[in-house]
Amino acid sequence: xxxxxxxxxxxxxxxxxxxxxxxxxxxxxxxxxxxxxxxxxxxxxxxxxxxxxxxxxxxxxxxxxxxxxxxxxxxxxxxxxxxxxxxxxxxxxxxxxxxxxxxxxxxxxxxxxxxxxxxxxxxxxxxxxxxxxxxxxxxxxxxxxxxxxxxxxxxxxxxxxxxxxxxxxxxxxxxxxxxxxxxxxxxxxxxxxxxxxxxxxxxxxxxxxxxxxxxxxxxxxxxxxxxxxxxxxxxxxxxxxxxxxxxxxxxxx
Length: 253
Hints:
Strand order of the largest sheet: 3-2-1-4-5-6-7
Structural class: alpha/beta
Order of helices and strands: EHEHEHEHEHEHHEHH
Number of helices: 9
Strand content: 5-15%
Low-confidence stretches: none
Mean pLDDT: 91
Shape: globular
Helix content: 40-55%
Oligomer: single chain
């Protein structure tokens, strides 16, 4: 059975990947959707052409990993594409947030992404694709958003290294590093306080980010930064010492 697996599929960028891939891909027998909100995924599935298998699980739970591995085995699955979109962040100084909140970010953004990737790799063949949702936050430390930015630096580094490792198997990994995207992400992230105000001027639409990401994966690109503004930000982080940029950021809050 040829499948596409998408985590974080109940909303935002993950749900947009489901909709766009459903229209674009052929030769796939099922979409496997992973998120906690079952109702959201069931509603999404009603409008799709492909059959859907829903994993209404917390991606951090060992029971989810066991169930995913079991289904991969019993279905004799071939994973044509894995899209890791599950992730979240919380604004606020490290000392003002709870250990559970910040470690939860690491568990979802880093540990779970790595675990799902490793589970799927044995079921991938030549020309399979992996899309990992990183962030432009990976390019520069972000005071007030420290753990989230650090977690996305992990995703970017892990994805680039994995891309090199899988060259011999003909499996291609694309790390996607957008800036702010207009989704529900900020409702959760800003529950204690707002992030930098200027970010609202650079928010992209999820459909544009996903369209760019799918095209980049098709082109076998290892890293993509959607949007002109974020491309400029990337250049800035390469040309200007981070100490200087962090000093400037103190006055932009």
